[in-house]
Amino acid sequence: MKIHPVKDLYEIEIANIKKRNSNQGIGLKSGYPEMDAIMGGIGFEPGFIYTIASRPGMGKTALILNLVFNQLSSLAHQDCIVYVSTKDSSTVLMQKILAIASGIDLKKIQLGQLSVQELSVLQSPEILGMVSNDKLVFVESINPTLDSLKEVISEQEKNRKQVKMMAIDVIQSAAIETAEGKEEGYKNLMNELKVLAIAKQMPMLLASEVNRRVEYRNGPKIPQLTDLLYSGHIGYLSDFCFMLVRPNYYEVPGEYVNLTPYEAHLIVKKNVYGPLDTIVLHVQIAKQLFISAPKWH
Question: What share of the chain is helix, strand, coil (3-state, %, to 5)?
Fold first, then answer.
């Protein structure tokens, strides 16, 4: 149980309102103006949980890596982001980040098929600056426990680093107490992650899998909160939940019209600030890039 005196909450909120009014912001900007606007113009807010869910192959890992990368340049020297991967190795994650940073096809990086100019880009001062100050920390863990996540944060704090965000890809791989079943197990985990996010004053960014039944049911194939794998509590206990859909990927007849080949939709299914909308992005999966639609050329 957490008790919050209204006086304290009032003082915190007034301070945050003043920051918003002076355009200082209190969160980490996503890099996508439409997304930031949906999130109250704040960006990723400390103490909040943000979940991005999709069917397989939509590119949620690439999108989360873009969201992480977009914040690196604005972090202070003592700040860092922790990315916990339950499926990709740190080597693969580094290759994907390099593709995002350089705009070079991921396969060319992985297969060593780079031109002299492309190799020069990967060794440019901009990219070297990104990796030389420990602003991004990759953690490989097949089944991370809550205690292990806390240990990672403590380790960064020992190194005089403040974790400004933790990303977990994917939440369904986290270890849970199964005595009450997976549904209750993930409910308890989400509540504990919320407590951790508040205690450390950082946003929590989660990737979530979706039940495959979505692909086979009649009617719209857009995932709902109840479609999150193992537990609808993952969506309900998130402050924001986005469903990532690449309409052309499954080509559902009549579900979408007037699409461009590179279109991706980030559909807001949960928003503590109220408005539900669809954010249109453009994607180049070969380069792992998600870009705001108006800026696409």
Answer: 40, 20, 40
